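Predict the 3D structure for this chain.
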Amino acid sequence: MFSTRPQFGGADAALQAAAGRLGGLFASREAAMEALSNPWIGAAGAGALFVLAAAALIAVTGDPRAGAPHVRISLTQGQDRPGAAPPVLVAPVTGPAVPAAPTDARQALPPAPVAGLTAPGPGGLLPVIGADGRTPFQAYARPFRDTGAPKVALVIGGLGLNAKTTRQAIEDLPGEVTLSFVPYAEGLQGWIDLARANGHEVLLEAPMEPLDYPQNDPGPYTLMAQDPAPETVKRMEMLLSRATGYFGVTNYLGGRFLASDSAMNLFAAVLHRRGLGFLDDGTAAARGGGEPRGSAERVIDQDLDGGSIDQQLQALEASAQQHGKALASGFAYPVTLQEVQRWAAGLQAHGLQLAPASALMTRRAP
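Done. Predicted structure below.
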């Protein structure tokens, strides 16, 4: 959701550290597979390699009860043990094709994955269109009941790198605010589960080649403008299989990738085949693709000042009043979260309706 890096070093350092861990994990998997294909490596050697790969996986994901959140939405009548940290829900669950719109902004969304909407991928589960035609976009977008008032939507991104601000965004912002997560985040599935349990729909950020690459490197499996199609598809499948429960993808950086017709046509085709939407930060506003699309008209926190952010939010309101709807993006800075929480509380009094970003997305001609 961002064509520029965050404005403070902590987030950038966290991104680089998380990306390094993810790159190490993928490298370990690929090295193991290459070694196992060598006929001179016997069963004992193969077993050792698998032990090393498992150790690398544990080193990356960490203790499942420490750090990242782990959410369980019970499907039985039993009660959870008081004080216990609930695990990530991994079993597919069934549900209606279009869930009823929540009457409470904090009402939990159905847990992920939904049965029939996943297939095995290189890093986990990949999203797929169901046999009945239901898409992950339809299944994981937050249901929305239009009141007829002008609509505003906001995406807060860069989540998963800083536990404190990620939890603050999930727990303090209204459920209608869409949240986007960095694919390199440790405990990514747990964060997405927690976000959905608090009513938020979720986007996954795709690292894309910027104009100043490699000086500005988004991380492992960055989508490159000049890569051959099989490599781009491979990288997308690695990224898309990092977690489940997201309704679409948004860009992280990408000045060069987003400007490439061939690269973007392939990117859009992959998302379309997998039933996902694409929401950009405004850089690719003129592009279609066939999948559900949306573009932010402004970034609210390019200036890290409460007054400046408030002015951007007021401008967003004015745009919605003029055009009937408006969508913006922001980063999970503490000042941004504080201003957005205050602003959202007064929207109804201004005659506006806060909507999830998915409700403002439409299909555009390729």
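Confidence is low (pLDDT under 50) at residues 28-68, 70-103.
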